Amino acid sequence: MAARESRHAVALVAPAVGLMLVLLFGPTAAALVISCTDWEFGAAAARFVGLGNFRALAADPVFWKALGNTLLYVAVVVPACVGGGLGLALLIESRQRFRTFYRTAHFLPVMSTLVAMAVVWQTLLHPTIGLVNQVFHVVGLEGRNWLREEGTALFALALIGIWQNLGYAMVLFMAGLRSIPRDLYHAAEIDGADSALDRLRTVTLPLLGPVTMFVLVMMAVRAFQLFETVHVLTKGGPNKASEVLLHLIYVESFEFLRTGRGAALTVIYLAIVVGITMLQTKLVERRVHYA
Amino acid sequence: MAAIELRHIVKRCGNANILRDVSLGVEAGEFLTIVGPSGCGKSTLLKIIAGLEEQTSGEVLIDALPADNLRPKARDIAMVFQSYALYPHLTVFDNLALPLRMRWLTPLQRAPAIGRFLGRAGRQRIGQAVQDTAEFLEIGHLLDRKPGQLSGGQRQRVALGRALVRRPKAFLMDEPLSNLDAKLRMSMRHELAALHRQLGATFVYVTHDQSEAMTMSDRVAVMMDGTLLQVDTPQAIYDRPSHRQVAEFIGSPAINLFAAHLERGRMRADGVLLPSHWDIPDNEAVTVGIRPEGLTLKADAHGWRGEVAHLENMGADLFVHVRTRLCDNAIVVRMSPQQGGLKIGETVTVARVISAPMLVFDRDGRRIDPRREMLSEVVNG
């Protein structure tokens, strides 16, 4: 009886476990193994080099530049999206009128194809014919070659990143706002917390805790995934000023065909993303779920 | 303590009339219950008193002063919600302290970082008040917990405490007991009534449970479909409901209602002669109401024959549901379990207890009073 039951259990779980092995753990394990070799894409043989690839990366300034740029990009995009998304959601939810319109308008960038939109941004940011510089010119400011200057390239990409992810954060916050019981606002009003700021501090923000947590993780993971705009607009340039981890992985693996080195980068990238996600959930979850 | 007066309150939401011309006076220190089926507008009325919703027209007076332009905070009224509406992220202590912090501390003293160093005296006073209230409600040992770690009854007490802690002029309660289990609800009824006596404060209590209304209040206001049908003491509402709907709503099991008509001055229902002390024109169709305790089962009496459909033994009382030709519903008769021996399906005769009051309602459902000179006779049989 027990044996039959456990046989059934294995049979039922097997497909899911199989898929997870093939699609998730398999590639991860493969990346781990390849990262310890000097395999080059298409080569017939590979040599085991241990941590050689990682040591080489640690000595490579381009890797450190890419890592720093990625962190800077995340540090700009995540707070802007979380703060901006919350602000937008609060503004839109505070009035009945045009609610659906605003929501749709702000959500459009999320649904659009980023590669196509990157081209639009390229035109907007074009040094001579771009709308941005034209506007700068009209108000008497000096325009720049936004995507081709070391000082601005990464921030131009961050701006596009914010533009793309803001609506996503906003929609999540709007759903969160709607799930706050109206009674709590009423109680706060009777208790005397009836100014906008007090209401925000007493009810809205604390009750949005779990949602904020989720948005934070989502935004961070999405920001770490920065690739398309870099690939289409800057190729990591100028002078590696906009080089980021994911793009570097691509360049190493598929342009220089140094697959072993690319795999080592992938392992580092994965470790960072998994680490951040775990840290965020572990640390903050304890404080935002009121059980 | 505050008297609350409502004058011609109307509330419309789009095309829906939620409240139609409600006028009500609550005396200072009174326990008044607004009772009615769900959706009758009673919670809306409470929110209008609290200032959480705005009436379409009419006036709210608190202590004889117009309160319409006052925000909820300035009305100095506390409210207990059905969902308790406790702040889930705050401890019980902070839940209780919040209304005081909002009133006794300046915005600067409440500010996140620097506030901690300011307003020490105020903070001590708040701590003391919270302790006192917590001890009063016997929740002193729960002060460090969060609402999620409390049982329903404990949350209920915390919600009460948050209302109590600032000693408001009046308490508004919106179905505060309906999320509790039956046993706890009964004991909380006593506690609330005792609390009211101790505080001497004005209580306005909203419920859909008529037994809560009957057992706790000084006066009961019965509300249906946005209109107050009757405001009176529980006993008066039970004995002399102004309206058929009130009679149906108050009392458990519900009053027996059936059609009767007048023929040459004599009232009959399904052929059985009833007292005829009412000034009603001939051939007028009326509805007669007799409570279960006003009926009895007698083998050879002049009454309505029927079949026992259901027996409800409550221990002290036995309610016999008898299916008759009088009305679609079974007629409910209160008997003593000692008079038992009844079986389902048995044929019995339902008779009126001669001395029991009988209510008569006209076609529109309004109660018709018996003729004055006959009043004593009706009561005494």
A few lines on this structure:
Chain A is built from 13 helices and no strands.
Notable characteristics:
heterodimer; A: 291 residues; mainly alpha; 75% helix; B: 381 residues; alpha+beta; Rossmann fold; OB fold (Dihydrolipoamide Acetyltransferase, E2P); 2 domains; six-stranded mixed sheet; six-stranded antiparallel sheet; 27% helix; disordered C terminus
Radius of gyration of chain A over all CA atoms, rounded: 24 Å
Question: Could you say how many structural domains of chain B there are in total?
Answer: 2
Oligomer: heterodimer
Helical amount of chain A: over 70%
Low-confidence stretches of chain B: 377-381
What can you tell me about this protein's structure?
Chain A is mainly α and 291 residues long. Helix content of chain A is 75%, strand content 0%. Chain A is built from 13 helices and no strands. By secondary structure, chain B is of the alpha+beta class. Chain B has two domains: 4-239, P-loop containing nucleotide triphosphate hydrolases (Rossmann fold, 3-Layer(aba) Sandwich), CATH 3.40.50.300; 255-380, Nucleic acid-binding proteins (OB fold (Dihydrolipoamide Acetyltransferase, E2P)). Chain B has helices at 42-50, 72-75, 92-104, 107-110, 120-136, 152-164, 182-199, 210-216, 234-239, 244-249, 375-380, and strands at 4-13, 16-26, 31-35, 57-62, 65-66, 77-80, 170-174, 202-207, 219-224, 227-232, 256-263, 266-269, 272-274, 285-290, 295-297, 304-313, 318-324, 331-335, 347-352, 359-361, 367-368. Chain B has a six-stranded mixed beta sheet, with helices on both faces. In chain B, strands 13-12-11-14-20-21 form a six-stranded antiparallel beta sheet. A five-stranded antiparallel beta sheet of chain B has the order 15-19-16-17-18, with no helix packed on it. In chain B, strand 1 and strand 2 form a beta hairpin. Chain B is elongated. Residues 377-381 of chain B have low confidence and may be disordered.
